[in-house]
Amino acid sequence: MTICFDSLCDKLTDEVCGHLQYYQEFSCEGNDLKTDLQRFIVEKQYNTDTIDLVLAALCNALPVVAIIYQTTGGQIQECVHGPGRPGVNAVGTVRFQMTGEGLGAHYNPVVPCQEPTNQTASAVQRDSDVQPDARDSQVTHSAKRSQKPQQDYTPMTNTPTKPTTSNFSAFHVRPFPKAAPRQMASKGRKRRKSAILTDTPEKQRLSEEKKQKPTRTAQVGTKKSAPQTRKRKASRNLKSAISGDSSEDDDCFCLVCCEPYSNSRPNEQWVMCVSCNDWSHEECTEKKNIYVCQNCASDSE
User: Fold this and answer.
1) I need a surface site. Which of 3, 32, 110, 167 has the fewest CB within 10 A?
2) Among the listed ranges 172-181, 243-252, 284-293, which one has the minimum average pLDDT value?
3) Which tens digit of pLDDT belongs to each residue from 98-111?
4) CATH class entry, domain 5-155
5) Looking at residue 269, what is its pLDDT?
6) Widest Cα–Cα separation across the chain
7) Which spans does this entry mark as compositional bias, Low complexity (predicted)?
8) Where in the chain is the domain with CATH 3.90.70?
9) How many helices and strands, by DSSP H and E, does the chain display?
10) How far is CA 52 from CA 15, 48, 61, 69, in A?
């Protein structure tokens, strides 16, 4: 029979609370029986009679016969406790090894290493058939076992055993792929902090930035040559002309390769013919300062 600790505590509590008149003889004078039982189960505190109360409730609640082994003077003594409440018959047997005395007593469940002898089996059967009253159930039947060694009963501890199977993870077979290096997004516009623009230090800083802007524009303009400036202006005029004619669903085509403007690559430059105002790719022309298409050049000749 297997039972968890919480279920065992519930069974003991229900057993004592349901038969208070029977178990009242186990409580000390002036103490509450329910309080003693709860302190024993929850707080691990008990008086001299509480351990006998729990042992009697255990035999009546399960119901079982409890065989307790205690070593005294190098010899093993066997104490048998059976159900003492009227109408309760034992259906099994549990064995404990008792260590210590009084408040320091402790019970460890044990399992016999070999089959019990016929003498022990007959003694257990004889004790299970007898149903003494509450006081008689607490009388211990001691029998000296001088010929039986102490190592016949192995105490069961609460130390967990190591698992026999090894831990296996799919990570050892196929590790997770490494992520590609993170791409840094473009910073874009410079962030500004919250400030009062009418404040004197902030106002001075904004005025200095405004003074520096024309200087930067002038420096950039001196580095560029006249053809590049003309081509950039032509590109801007081309965008404005196409955006103005977008309502007519007409696209501008290169005069040389006939490719539409909508298929242009990023930052691809276009130049306009000074005669017919049509457009061509800069790469398709001879890259002169003044562009005249082949149609207009043949007409002039």
Assistant:
1) 167
2) 243-252
3) 887 765 677 777 77
4) alpha beta
5) 87
6) 140
7) 154-165
8) 5-155
9) 9, 8
10) 14, 8, 14, 15
Distance CA 37, CA 51 (A): 9
CA dist., res. 244 & res. 251, Å (int): 11
CA–CA gap between residue 85 and residue 23 (Å, rounded): 9
Residue among 69, 65, 116 nearest 89 (CA): 65
Is pLDDT above 80 for 162? no
Query: CATH for 223-300?
Result: 3.30.40.10
Contact criterion met (CB below 8 Å) for 139 and 56: no
| Residue limits of CATH 3.30.40.10 in the chain | 223-300
Phi-psi region of 184 (alpha: psi -120 to 50; beta: other; left: phi over 0): beta
The alpha carbon of residue 263 and the mean position of all alpha carbons in its chain are separated, in whole angstroms, by 53
297 contact partners, CB below 8 Å, separation of at least 6 = none
pLDDT-derived band at 141, boundaries 50, 70, 90: very low
Non-local CB neighbours of 32 within 8 Å, separated by 6+ positions: none
- Region 81-92: mean pLDDT is 84
Length of the chain: 301
pLDDT band at 192, cuts 50/70/90? low
Residue entry with tokens 């049509």:
278
The more confident residue out of 134 and 56 is 56
Distance between CA 230 and CA 162 in Å, rounded? 84
pLDDT band at 248 (very low <50, low <70, confident <90, very high): very low
Helices (H), the chain: 5-18, 20-23, 33-42, 50-61, 118-129, 170-173, 200-223, 226-244, 294-300
Average pLDDT, integer, range 112-129: 57
In angstroms, rounded to a whole number, what is the distance separating the alpha carbons of residues 263 and 259? 7
> Are 34 and 27 within 8 A, CB to CB?
no
